[in-house]
Amino acid sequence: MAVATRVQGPLAPQSPVATVLQRKPSGLYSDAWRRMRKNKATMVGLSIIIAFVLIAVFASVLAPHNALQSYSGYTFRPAAWVSDPDPTRAGDPRFLFGTDAIGRDVLSRLIYGARTSLIVGLVPMLIILTVGTTVGLIAGFAGGKVDNLLMRITDIIYAFPDLLFFILMMTALRDTWIGNLLNGLILLFVSLAIVNWVGVARLVRGQVLSLKEKEFVEAARMVGADRIRIMLKHLLPNSLAPIIVSAAFIIPNAILVEAILGYLGVGMRPATDPASLFPTSWGGMLLEGRDAINAQIFLLITPAIAIATIMLSFTFVGDGLRDALDPMMKGKI
Amino acid sequence: MTRTQFIIRRVLWIIPVLFSVALITFIVMHATPGGPWDVDPNKADRRISDQLDKTFGLNKPLFFNPEAFQQAQKEGRGVIESGQAFIDAQFENYIFSLLRGDLGPSYRYRGRSVSDVIFGVQDDKPAWQSKIGTTATLGILALLFALAFGIPMGIISALKQNTAVDYASLFVVTIGYGIPSFVMGILLIIVFAVWLGVINVIEIDYWQRWQSWFLPTIVLGLPTAAFAARLTRASMLDVMRSDYIRTARAKGLGERVVVLRHMLRNALIPVVTFAGPALAGLVTGSFIIENQFGVAGIGDLFVRSVSRRDYTVIMALTLFYALLIALANLAVDIIYGFLDPRIQMGKKEG
Question: Would residue A24 count as lying in a domain?
């Protein structure tokens, strides 16, 4: 782990050497943050992600219309700046990106979709990290049969083509009670978690395997720390860096899976309750946009660009995090 | 453990993995409401669907058949026959026919077996136009594109490190692996189909024309091209700093010879060895692209089969994909072992 060089021994406090050397020892994370701030692409990505989070949280304030409100007589309006001699086909300043097949505002749906995508990225990530870290810690630390079992389960899940699994799950359990919770979002969270926790578990296990032979763990054991304490106070904090990096790749992957499933028509089901927190998703918009590709291009192009932007931002942040937390890896793949 | 032992062990391990994949797929598939005869269970004609169930053995229990077992016991048949009656259930029957190499009948393509649906061609079309041939063609084209585009880009950006050329190629690489091919597909469809009007998938014999393969090939191959470029660049930079390159220059060899003979030969080893696993990844990863561009391959077939509950086709394709992925993972492990002998085979590590 990155440890700043500490200076010991008598040095006159006023000497210029001492002022340089007596800088406070900086920790792993403040070091990493300092390195990351220099990475322009990462900072741009981070700003975009923060903007995306703000849009998602304040969707109800930012969106000009309710995402489910349909305006009769305003179906498939083009973007606001398009003029047409026929007033029923011209753009309307109230609908910046036009309207969809039943006269709902595309921009508002896009803004609410950001909220769905954010929650799809966030909740499975939390489940995956919790389960994966716990299992990885235990398997790596206990070794033996527990570890073997984990590796065998991992092999099976790795061999299962994950999109195939998502499609099967979403189709199979669509009409059960779990498929109805939050319009199917809960089922999506569960499916994502089932597939992805093994990656984190394997990662943490690998870390623990190499860490538990280190001197500091031995020292902790010698002073009488019990196993739980060693796991939580010594092994976990030292495995945190790769866990954080993997989170930066799990979130965009979950957002992408939602979009693909939505596009294939097995994603979240359309909400009907106007008070719903998650009325639509980018995946759902892609499906509607695909069917209306010649009628209203903005229904397809806006979510596609939104997803592309988010994916790129997370790639930048993920790469930046990896470089910052593990400087040895920099420049390599 | 020697390397051979390790490889044999890993190959044998694929069998239980595939069995588990089959079991999971079977359970999830049969939890799906509706059956192959009608997705909406209320719409199907009971008498007809019962008859069809009987013909295809879908009226049998899923895993164990205690009724047939009791029946056999009552009739006083032997242990083996009673045991056979006990496992006369859908899952076991499928597995046994699979072991005989029979993938079963398709429930939706009437009168055709699953092997015929996947491998067969209709109306004397060339063999590559079967479902699997189409997917393989797309995968190979995408791989060729990835190598032909990624390797030169990696070489040039390594030779011109930290120049405008390098940054430009880095930009392309970042776009390539940062934007998922699914989204790239949508964007390119908008540009080429809607704005430029160059592609028109509805045409008859569309896939007979070679121009039609351009877009799906590029969309599918771009992330792999980006990967190849990154790998080539990194490995070139590694090689460029090595002593034998300095020696080659010192003895007065021309730059051309140094680059082509000495550098490329070593720098390309990792790239070329990953071509095989990359192809497996392209074949298994293509189904969303197939769906988008209307390529009639096995990926597209899978998506259709799920919504039509064509159980046997779903099973066959899932197993095929799982086998490919398992083999690719194995190949990667072995390649890593050869490239870097310090990685010990069979040693327990992450």
Answer: no
A260 touches chain B (CB under 8 A): yes
**Cα separations in angstroms, A307 against A230, A317, B80, B181:** 41, 15, 59, 12
Confirm whether A8 is domain-assigned. no
Does B13 touch chain A if contact means CB atoms closer than 8 Å? yes
Task: Catalogue all structural domains in chain B, each as residue range(s) with its CATH number.
Answer: 3-119 (no CATH), 127-230+274-348 (1.10.3720.10)
Q: Is this prediction's ipTM beyond 0.85?
A: no
Q: Please, which residues 173-212 of chain B have a Cβ atom closer than 8 Å to chain A?
A: 174-175, 177-180, 182-184, 186-187, 189-190, 193-194
Using DSSP's 3-state secondary structure scheme, residue B34 falls into: coil
What are the tokens at A37?
């701030």
Query: Is residue A81, in this structure, part of any structural domain at all?
Result: yes
A18 found inside a domain: no
What is the per-residue pLDDT across B22-50, written as a single tens digit (0 to 9) for each?
A: 888 888 877 776 666 665 556 666 676 67
Residue B328 phi/psi, 5° resolution?
A: -65, -45
The answer to whether the Cβ–Cβ distance between B302 and A164 falls below 8 Å is: yes
Burial of residue B4, with CB atoms counted within 10 A of its CB: 0-12 exposed, 13-18 middle, 19 or more buried: exposed
Q: Which residues of A touch B34 (CB under 8 A)?
A: none
Task: Provide CB contacts within 8 A for A113, sequence distance 6+.
Answer: A280, A281, A282, A284, A285, A303, A306
